[in-house]
Specification:
By secondary structure, the protein is mainly alpha-helical. 62% of the residues lie in helices and 4% in strands. It has a 4-stranded mixed β-sheet with strand order 5-4-3-6. It has a two-stranded antiparallel sheet with strand order 1-8. It has a two-stranded antiparallel ribbon with strand order 2-7.
């Protein structure tokens, strides 16, 4: 009997005190605040906020988009909200053509012929002045110095000719007279030497002035009046200069008589330089504009907007946007940002509840947010009211999310991006429907990708949806039928192109998002894979076990709507780690000594457990995808290696310490997906069924139920969202499959045991 204690009994608590000690779970607001206090959540929220701000910048959310489109018939007259000017191309072309006509033509001038002509004249004059008498002079040479006679004037006699010659000789006799004549000729010829001589007036350029480039003075041009260089005018100027500069008028007239017919044309048109001069003058002409006052009518009500009207409205819209105040821009920016954040909030709640893979890992979230920005950027670059090519990046986005995650997630995000595009471009509801319809059609059809032609088929289905939707929307809007069918065919073409592009981009999508489509899984599950071939060679029993498990698990996975193909391929590789030490696994042992007989239970457990880590290492070395590695690591979860644990318990002496059960468990992790849980059950059932002496349906059913319940009680399905109803369906499928494997056979009368 226990000794009495002196401790007083605990006082009884009142009902109010008991109620006050009850701790209730936190409410929704408290739970949300607790989640916000976690750093990882804050990082994700910050990334979403930065993405929304980037979207605001890409779509220029502070600027209102235009509210008109090609072919639209406005219900009222469209007038100018601000004064603006429109480039007048016709006036600009005319002004530049005028500038080209008034540009100076460029001529190259070589004065050498004039200098030689002047030198020849001086030499001949000196020769004539040095003659002894008229009888000894060269009459042909002297004839060149005879001025032309007026009509009706008789020819001079020989005596008169002799007197004229004597006067000519007397006027030029002496060195002083010769020097004076040379100086006079230099002054008279100077304008010709400097400016040159031109035979005809320019017709394709300025007719009043020309630009002269003198040889030896490259890069230097002299602007010269055309009148001064025309040969007829230059002759008159030269005659006047000789009359003024030469002391004797008769000598001046005789000199001009010799020079007049021999003046050379020294100016030659430089066509390339002239063209450059004209181009330079044309470029200097400023753009000509039409000025529109505020309130001016830009488009008439009821008339469809053509390209000319759209161009004018675009200029007016740009002028109006430019003159908006900062207050209006800031208000619209915050309103647009709020709308984008609302879209992020809606998608975020859905993802956190139904598709947590996107936010569970930060790289996945970053990839999706980057894809959102790239898609919106591509839509803004390709947007066109006539072509509607922005549907291509939208469809690529929707198909990518459908392949990487869920179709429902892809539909929601595509709808959100359509709304963002509609806000950024001021699309009407009909335009948003036109873009979203083919995208939704592609997403709905894209349930799995088992063949290379699947994405092309998706593109053609989306094209049909796009065509019918465009026709329907166009008819409701009352658009012309030719425009409706043109746009419908264009939308269908874009859909087919998007499907074709997705076929090419599929390997990139799988690599970036770390997903495996059915097509990739089929290629991966090829028995010719080097790892499977090595497994056949080293551990044929494990290979046959894997093939059987794959068949059982695929049917069980499909019974609950999971990815049966993924489970099958995962089952092919789940035991590849056994090839490193195949003799320690019962399916690879032939009749004879068991290698575990020489090991203590703890060491045997380590050998058995090691095949999980070895398999994962082999998979990574051979670049298997992570989803297959997950099957290798999770197909045993943290289950107990029961056989060796019981051996250790049986060998424990009375004085020995308690056996640590955790030392006999697989390292895990527990199955994270329903597919991994299915593989765990199928693997255990297939192994245990081989021990049945008489595998009747009842015994198989009892075995499946026992193994499933044992893992359920062990908490192996706590992290994979597997329900009891799904466990029942998995069990029924496994029983059916195993019963088919171990079905009975008819024994023939002459059949004997081998």
């Amino acid at each position: 009997m226990a000794a009495p204690t002196n401790n007083p009994p605990a006082p009884r608590r009142t009902r109010s005190q008991r109620v006050a000690t009850v701790e209730l779970p936190p409410g929704p607001l408290e739970a949300a605040w607790m989640n916000l206090q976690r750093g990882a959540v804050l990082v994700r929220l910050a990334l979403c906020l930065l993405t929304a701000i980037a979207l605001l910048a890409i779509t220029r959310g502070w600027e209102p988009p235009r509210d008109y489109r090609l072919g639209m018939a406005p219900k009222r007259d469209l007038t100018a909200r601000v004064e603006f000017k429109q480039p007048d191309r016709a006036a600009t072309r005319e002004a530049r053509a005028t500038a080209r006509r008034f540009a100076e033509a460029v001529y190259d001038h070589d004065p050498m012929e004039l200098l030689q002509l002047k030198s020849t004249l001086l030499n001949e004059v000196t020769e004539l002045a040095g003659a002894e008498s008229y009888e000894t002079v060269d009459r042909n040479m002297w004839a060149l110095y005879t001025p032309p006679r007026a009509e009706g004037t008789p020819a001079p006699t020989a005596e008169e000719e002799a007197k004229q010659f004597e006067r000519f000789k007397a006027a030029l006799g002496g060195e002083e007279a010769q020097n004076a004549l040379q100086a006079a000729l230099d002054e008279a010829f100077a304008p010709l030497v400097r400016q040159g001589l031109l035979d005809t007036q320019p017709t394709e350029a300025n007719s009043e002035r020309i630009a002269v480039r003198t040889s030896g003075k490259e890069g230097f041009e002299t602007i010269v009046p055309v009148r001064e260089v025309l040969v007829e005018n230059a002759r008159n100027d030269l005659k006047n200069a000789l009359d003024q500069k030469v002391a004797n008028l008769e000598v001046a007239q005789r000199l001009f008589a010799w020079v007049r017919p021999q003046l050379p044309i020294t100016l030659k048109l430089n066509r390339e330089a002239t063209r450059e001069s004209q181009d330079r003058r044309a470029e200097e002409v400023e753009e000509q504009y039409k000025i529109y006052d505020r309130g001016a009518r830009l488009a008439e009500a009821g008339k469809p907007l053509g390209e000319t009207a759209i161009e004018l409205l675009d200029i007016e819209h740009e002028a109006w946007v430019t003159r908006r105040g900062w207050g209006s821009r800031i208000n619209r920016a915050f309103a647009t940002l709020g709308l984008y954040l609302a879209m992020f909030t809606l998608c975020g709640f859905y993802v956190c509840r139904f598709d947590k893979r996107i936010v569970a890992q930060l790289p996945r979230l970053l990839t999706v947010l980057t894809l959102v920005l790239l898609t919106i950027g591509a839509m803004m670059l390709t947007r066109s009211q006539e072509w509607r090519a922005e549907v291509i990046p939208l469809m690529l986005f929707g198909m990518t999310i459908a392949i990487a995650y869920r179709q429902e997630t892809a539909l929601l995000m595509s709808a959100a991006l359509t709304l963002v595009s509609a806000v950024a471009s001021n699309h009407e509801l009909s335009v948003a429907v036109l873009m979203l319809a083919p995208t939704a059609g592609a997403i709905i059809v894209l349930d799995s990708v088992r063949t290379r032609s699947k994405l092309l088929l998706v593109g053609f289905v989306a094209a049909l949806v796009a065509f019918l939707t465009t026709v329907g929307v166009g008819v409701l809007d009352g658009a012309p039928y030719d425009l409706i069918f043109k746009q419908a065919l264009m939308m269908a073409l874009w859909s087919v192109i998007a499907g074709s592009l997705m076929t090419c981009l599929l390997p990139l999508v799988e690599r970036v998002f770390g997903v495996q489509t059915d097509l990739s899984l089929i290629e991966l599950g090829d028995p010719a894979h080097p790892l499977l071939q090595e497994l056949i060679r080293r551990a044929p029993g494990s290979y046959n076990h894997s093939i059987t498990v794959a068949s059982l698990a695929e049917a069980a996975a499909e019974s609950i709507g999971a990815r049966g193909l993924l489970v099958r391929v995962g089952a092919y590789f789940h035991d590849i780690g056994k090839m490193l030490k195949p003799g320690y696994f019962i399916e690879n042992q032939s009749s004879g000594q068991n290698q575990h007989d020489t090991l203590v239970p703890a060491m045997s457990t380590l050998v058995i457990i090691a095949h999980v880590k070895d398999g994962a290492d082999l998979a990574r070395q051979n670049h298997l995808p992570e989803c297959i590695i997950d099957f290798i690591q999770q197909h045993h979860g943290t289950t107990l290696v029961e056989y060796f644990y019981r051996q250790a318990a049986a060998k424990k002496g009375e004085g020995d310490s308690e056996i640590d059960e955790s030392s006999f468990r697989y390292p895990g992790p527990k199955p994270q997906t329903k597919e991994a849980a299915v593989l765990m059950i199928a693997d255990a059932v297939e192994s245990a069924s081989r021990t049945l002496v008489e595998p009747t349906p009842a015994r198989i059913e009892s075995l499946v139920e026992d193994l499933t319940r044992k893992r359920l009680d062990d908490g192996q399905f706590e992290e994979c969202n597997l329900t009891l109803e799904e466990l029942r369906k998995i069990g029924d499928s496994l029983v059916k499959s195993l019963t088919a494997v171990y079905h009975g056979r008819v024994k023939y009368p002459d059949q004997v045991t081998a």
